[in-house]
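User: For my dataset I need records formatted as: sequence, then structure tokens, nothing else. Please produce one.
Assistant:
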Amino acid sequence: MWTVDSAQVRQVVENLVENALRYSAGPVQVVLCAPTDTSGPLIRVLDRGPGLPPEQREAVFAAGHDRPRVASGRGLGLPLARRLARANGADLTLHEAQGGGLEARVAFGRG
């Protein structure tokens, strides 16, 4: 069983989906993976945008990161999403999506 602040987890997912829509012209996929014997639930948000080089994936979690934007924003979405995820026993990481694009993973610890 996982006790979370549903409003905060909803905000995490909203931020990730908005970010994916901002950087991708294609569809955005949201997947909820059930917990297993070795891991907690996993939320995956995948886009088919240009992706992000591995060396930049951690830097985007710094508030005000100067990644070129295709829409308005202050660069606070990902840092806030990670803080909220961690406040709810999860971590937010970025990965190359299979087939191209970017995958954001919100992985909850074992309950």
